[in-house]
Automatic annotation (TrEMBL):
Source organism: Serratia rubidaea
A Pfam family matched in the record: TatD_DNase
Keyword set includes Hydrolase: yes
Encoding gene per record: yjjV
Lineage start: Bacteria, Pseudomonadati, Pseudomonadota, Gammaproteobacteria, Enterobacterales
Family as reported in the entry's similarity comment: Belongs to the metallo-dependent hydrolases superfamily. TatD-type hydrolase family.
GO MF term (any one): hydrolase activity, acting on ester bonds
GO CC terms in record: cytosol
InterPro entries cross-referenced by the UniProt entry: Metal_Hydrolase, TatD-like
Keyword Metal-binding on entry: yes
Domain of life: Bacteria
Keywords assigned by UniProt, alphabetized: Hydrolase, Metal-binding
Enzyme Commission number(s) from the entry: 3.1.21.-
Name this protein carries in UniProt: TatD family hydrolase
Residues binding a divalent metal cation 1: H9, H11, E97, D207
Residues binding a divalent metal cation 2: H133, H157
Length: 258
């Protein structure tokens, strides 16, 4: 039986995909990657991300203001985001990529939290799930999510925290994004987390063109490599591959209603 996958996190609006969309989608489909969610990072990319989703059936859009670009974000861009959410194009699947980051040089953490709080309120008002970025910020993020109490919840993408931090998100009803980190033998902590979490809590992703897999260091990551992330996950889990693939597909559907 052929397995089918969704890459729930791919920055398809960036190189090397820009200008090579059809070829990139053919390569993804050949690997069984049938659907790709494209999160935006800044307001000036909202239109492009939506155009991509509307032009190519496998693509879906998420719109949000990424914490790494905190210096570029302005309050009026929240009104822009709300305009898109109010219009609610059919291929708009989530609010994202949003979140917190304490790894960057000048985090402006209070501003990050203010911006995230506003975007969580928008997701709640418009009944959309969220795609969350979190680096060295899992505990404050979990606290904010608990207070926000979003009806549709979301996914903490590219997770590399502890098992107890992952379980805290799962208890709140959030999914955990499984990416290429697990393809590295040295990533013992993350591999152990993905082996122990319930299968019902996991989603598949690449974060392409970032987060290259083991064996592909120095190359741009690609959505077809979601199939390789899946193979790495199968090596860590006790369930049969067909069951894992089917559950990942169901999890994606239940969160994003694609």
């Amino acid at each position: 039986m052929s397995l089918r996958f969704t890459d729930t996190h791919c920055h398809f609006d960036f190189p090397p995909f820009s200008g090579h969309e059809a070829d990139s989608l053919r390569r993804a489909a050949a690997a069984g990657v049938e659907r790709i969610i494209v999160p935006s990072v800044t307001a000036d990319r909202f239109t492009r991300v939506m155009q991509l989703a509307e032009s190519y059936p496998p693509l879906y859009a998420a719109l949000g203001l990424h914490p790494l670009y905190i210096a570029q974000h302005h309050d009026e861009q929240l009104a822009q985001l709300e305009g898109w959410l109010t219009a609610r194009p059919p291929k708009l699947a989530a609010v994202g990529e949003i979140g917190l980051d304490l790894y960057m040089a000048e985090p402006q953490f209070e501003r990050q939290q203010t911006l995230l709080r506003a975007q969580l309120q928008l997701a709640k008002r418009h009944d959309l799930p969220v795609i969350l970025h979190s680096r060295r910020s899992h505990d404050p993020l979990a606290a904010m999510l608990r207070r926000a109490d979003l009806p549709r919840r979301g996914v903490v993408h590219g997770f590399a925290g502890s098992l107890s931090q992952a379980q805290a998100f799962v208890r709140l009803g959030y999914f955990i994004g499984v990416g290429g980190t697990i393809s590295y033998q040295r990533a013992q902590k993350t591999r152990a987390v993905m082996a122990q979490l319930p299968l019902s809590a996991l989603l598949l992703e690449t974060d392409a063109p970032d987060m290259p897999l083991a064996g592909h260091q120095g190359e741009p990551n690609r959505p077809e490599r979601a199939a390789e992330v899946f193979q790495a996950l199968c090596q860590l889990r006790s369930e049969p591959p067909e069951q894992i693939a089917d559950r990942l597909w169901q999890n994606t559907q239940s969160l994003f209603a694609l």
